[in-house]
Specification:
375 residues; Rossmann fold; 7-stranded mixed beta sheet; 4-stranded parallel beta sheet; 24% helix; binds zinc ion; NAD(P)-bd_dom_sf; zinc; EC 1.1.1.1; ADH-like_C
């Protein structure tokens, strides 16, 4: 089969003769992929930043498709069902899964204490990803979510990650009716954090980024764009909120603009190579005594973390990897009844064969907001 394979930093290739996955355990299914997306966190892999990602692994943790084959003990889905699959792999039976803490499954990752993720290297379980013609999905009585008749796989696709992860950001930040919210980063997760903040009753949502195409998508979702190349997001947010500040969501993580030498802001206030740029803005822009939601990925320790300011302004932090199953069914229903159309985010529809080009385009960002590929 054809698959998108990691060969090294900035080197993603199509392998034509990858063996088709087969049932390895009685609770496995083999899924024929019909839609798959590239995620911002695939770019962390693409940049060679993820430990345990070795050449030869199939990429991709955002995918939907048709069940082609089921193991002997699979009862919850059958051949021909269309499903969307969460990026985190959940056994359904360990202590964490039984308590709904899906992203910390104790059994799915034989390599360590973190829960497993599709297509994310040995440290995250070593499972092949879904940017391929087929993928093996384990624990199929727990993991896949059936797509209702009236929805396409493309409409349900972002329930694999970015819609749920954006909602998780708004949930962690405890967005309440009437809140003013600031979403830092208008990439796919930021976009859905904007959508989700409004679903939870936000009065106003500010979207902070510097890519016009991304700010434009956020604006279409109802946000007020702030381009940090043109204005200081902290004073803008303060000015618009009678100096109170906003409920803040960090949908960027450690690869903020300036983290890479090639990717600098025109804003002179921006400190190059400062991975904590977003946190340093948030600690000043956040409304006192609120919770900052951080669905953006952080990987290492930071000596200059502004802990004192967090204490003084009585800010809480909630962060981590979204437990997708906590949200995907409810969010699916919002799509089903037409309240949310996630396909609005898509800027590029491409063939799986074009994946190397798609990774390069998504990495450069520019006018790319989300790439969906069809095998
Ligand atoms: Zn993702
Ligand atoms: Zn588990």
């Amino acid at each position: 089969m054809r698959a998108v394979v990691y060969h090294g930093p900035k080197d993603v290739q199509i392998d034509d003769d990858r063996p088709k996955p087969r049932i390895e355990h009685s609770e496995d299914i083999i899924l024929k992929i019909t839609k798959t997306a590239i995620c911002g966190s695939d770019l962390h892999l693409y940049h060679g930043n993820i430990k345990g990602m070795e050449p030869g692994q199939v990429l991709g943790h955002e995918f939907a498709g048709i069940v082609e084959q089921v193991g002997d003990r699979v009862e919850e889905v059958k051949q021909g069902d269309r499903v969307v699959v969460p990026f985190n792999i959940n056994c359904g039976r360990c202590w964490y899964c039984r308590h709904g803490l899906w992203s910390q499954c104790d059994r799915s990752n034989p390599q360590g204490e973190l829960g497993a993720v599709f297509g994310y290297g040995q440290n995250m379980g070593g499972y092949d990803g879904g940017q391929a013609e087929y993928v093996r999905v384990p624990y199929a009585n727990t993991v896949p979510l059936k797509i209702p008749e009236n929805l396409s796989e493309e409409q349900a696709l972002f329930l694999s990650d970015v819609f749920c992860t954006g909602y998780f950001g708004a949930d962690m930040a405890n967005v309440q009716p009437g809140d003013d919210v600031a979403v830092f980063g208008a990439g796919p997760v930021g976009y859905f954090a904007v959508v989700s903040a409004f679903l939870r009753g936000a009065a106003r949502v500010f979207a902070i980024d510097h890519w016009p195409a991304r700010l434009d998508k956020a604006k279409k979702a109802g946000a007020e764009p702030i381009n940090f190349d043109q204005e200081d997001p902290i004073s803008k947010i303060k000015q618009e909120t009678k100096c109170r500040g906003a409920i803040c969501i960090d949908a960027v993580g450690y690869e903020a603009v300036g983290h890479h030498l090639h990717d600098n802001s025109a804003n002179p206030a921006y400190i190059p190579q400062d991975s904590l740029q977003v946190i340093n803005w948030i600690v000043q822009a956040a409304k006192k005594f609120t919770t900052v939601g951080i669905p953006g990925v952080y990987l290492t320790e930071y000596a200059d973390f502004p802990l004192g300011q967090f204490f003084q302004r009585e800010l809480q932090i909630k962060m981590g990897q979204c437990p997708v199953k906590k949200y995907n069914e409810q969010l699916l229903h919002l799509i089903e009844v037409g309240r949310v159309d996630p396909t609005q985010l898509i800027s590029h529809r491409m063939k799986l064969d074009e994946a190397p080009k798609a990774y390069d385009m998504f990495d450069k960002k520019e006018d790319v907001t989300k790439v969906v590929m069809t095998p």
